[in-house]
Amino acid sequence: MLGQWCAAGLPYADFWPLCFSEIITVLDGEYKRRTREHDDARARNYELAGLISFAHHDPKKMPKFQATGAAAQEQSDAVNQERVRGYLISLALSSQGSK
Q: What are the b/e assignments for 62-97, b being 16+ CB within 10 Å?
């Protein structure tokens, strides 16, 4: 078990105060984190390969850049707020019609 702990890159001294179930939980979480990072890297590389193909074969058809992060989050928040507002209005109108 200590070998798996060290192979995961976790500090040696942090192993000893933990019980068996805590060690399993930490190792399982570390495995899931590494799997997620690997999948993210694969998706990024796949997208990059597609963009390189566009750039090489037909640069005029290269897709426009779409920001992810703060700008995209602000836009989706505004859209989500409008959806909730519409839902609440429809609830208010449907309750008025049932009276």
A: eeeeeeeeeeeeeeeeeeeeeeeeeeeeeeeeeeee
Give tens-digit pLDDT for 29-43. 999 999 999 999 999
Cα–Cα distance, 31 to 80 (Å, whole number): 34
Highest mean pLDDT among 43-57, 60-74, 85-99: 43-57
Residue 37 burial by CB count (10 A; 0-12/13-18/19+): exposed, middle or buried?
exposed
Hunting for tokens 């597609």 — which residue is that?
A: 50
Ramachandran assignment for 67, one of left (phi > 0), alpha (psi -120 to 50 degrees), beta (any other): beta
Q: State the pTM of this model.
A: 0.55
